[in-house]
Each structure stands twice: as structure tokens, then as C-alpha cells.
Amino acid sequence: MKYLVLLILLCSRMVFAWCPDEGQVITLQGALAEHTYPGPPNYESIENGDEAVTNEFIQLDEPLECDLTQENESVAEVQLVFVGKSQASAAQLSPNQKHMIVATGKTMYAHAGRHYTPVLLLVDEVKPVAMALTPELKKSMLAQFQQFQQALRSNDVAAVKSWFLFPLNGDTYGFEPDTESQPYSKLTAEAFDRYGHQIIANLRLLSEVEVNPDTLEIKERRINALSAKEQQRRYFPGDEDGTFYYEENGQRHVVVGTCDEVASGEFNEETLTVYQGTSANNTLPGLSEMCDGASLFNFKLIEGKLRLVSSFTVG
């Protein structure tokens, strides 16, 4: 029996004690990381004048075991070199977000000062690994989102800022609706410090979305564009698209469809996506090209804390 156990241990060691050949196409999985090391001219010390060089690395789920220097060495990280189309894919990933990724490419052994790990990967393709959101994680996200809402309601600039991961990916239209005079093209910490109160004012509707961490329910917040009196009228389709009419005191009155302000949210893979925008009024619906538009705000759990990581505007 003890020989069987020994054989199993040896086989297990053979499975994990693996080092790829140079030029071999492999796929690695792990956490995306970013490190800064001394660069040219001497690759020895930033303090002594070497350039600070920042590169991306993958922290492997299972280390490689290589003997490239005549000694068995555990390689827990592999430096990533993005080439061709993989550069565009990599631009969508941020090491600050602790992305789990799958990277495919050819291996290369270190042979220059700019190579910071024994094995490097010339990346052909990289993509994030979606983290499955369990009910407990969703509950945590909604409970923390309620705290974010309270910070918005309190107009607490410092508290609201703590929920952002800067620089924010995506566009800035959701924070500054006046697209004709965008004061900043990228939402950085510095831009937030300058326009914080205005940003909070533009996000105010998000604070009115009703969420329930216990039931994981997110209810739409809708501000009806019609007055109470207008809502009581009976409308009929007009002769032209987007028009309606109602009759009052024996006369026909033609009106145009309108849009409501709306805000809501939903879970998507590893994100809590909340949005605010406009939608056709249920009683007097405006045309889709006039009403269908929203800014989407994507929240993720980063080391257990809910963070706003990106924003995109559609419509």
C-alpha cells in the first residue's frame, strides 16, 4: 500500500513539475498583476538613476518548475509581452481590478535585462475569466451599494470618491451630460476632486433605486414625466408617429409622446451594473430615438470592496 501512495505522490509531482520549452504555444491562467522594476541603462536601481519600467505579469494558479540556471526554480509569475491584436485586448484589462485571465502565446526564456522572469509569454490572446457571483457575493454587493447611495444622498464628496477605481474605464458622459463642453475626457482622481459636487448631482437618481440585499431585488426608479392630471387622461394614437390626442370639452388636443427618467440595475457575470437614463413614458410613449438612452455604471468586488470600475453611455 505504501508503494502505491509513493507512486501517486511521484505522479503528482510529475504533473505539476513542468516547464515549457522555449517557443512552445501554451495557455496560462492566473491573476493579472503589474510591477515596476529598474530599467535602462543598468537595470539595477531606480534610486540610482535607472528608468522605472512597468510591465504586466500573470500570477500563475500553478507555478512552473524550471531548471534554466542549473537549479530547480519555481516560477510563480510570468512576464507578459503583448503583441499584435493582444495589445488591444490587454488595454481593456486593469491590474488594479485583480482580473483573473487566460493568456495564450509562445514562451520565451529570459536573456536580457528587460526580462524580469525566467519565462516570458509573447501573448497572442488574452481574456478575463468571469468570476461567478454567488448569492452571498450579490448580497454583499447590494449592501455596499446602499452605502454608496447614502454617500450620494449626503453629498459626501470624499466618501463617494472612495468607491471609484481611477482612472475610470469608459466614457465620462454619465458624469457630465453636457456633451458639447466636456471638461475632462477621462475621469481621474484629479478630475473628481475638481468636479466632485457636479458629478454627485449627475448621479443623484442612482441614490433613489430601491435595492434589497436579502432578496437580491433591484426595483426600477421611474420619474413620470406627466402630471397627475395628464396621467388621468385617455390618449389615442395621432396621425403622425410619436403623436397622440385626447378629447376635452368637445375639442381634440394633439400632444407629443414623452420620456421618463429611469434608473435601475442588474447583475451581469461578475458585475453589478446600474444605469440611469430615459425611457418612453408608459402612458404617452415618446419615440425610441428620443427616449432610449442611458449611462451604465459597472461595479465590481475588488478584494471584497465594491468599486465603480467603468462607465459607458448608449443611445
From TrEMBL:
<feature type="domain" description="DUF4431">
    <location>
        <begin position="77"/>
        <end position="126"/>
    </location>
</feature>
<dbReference type="Pfam" id="PF14485">
    <property type="entry name" value="DUF4431"/>
</dbReference>
<keyword id="KW-0732">Signal</keyword>
<protein>
    <recommendedName>
        <fullName>DUF4431 domain-containing protein</fullName>
    </recommendedName>
</protein>
<feature type="signal peptide">
    <location>
        <begin position="1"/>
        <end position="17"/>
    </location>
</feature>
<dbReference type="InterPro" id="IPR027826">
    <property type="entry name" value="DUF4431"/>
</dbReference>
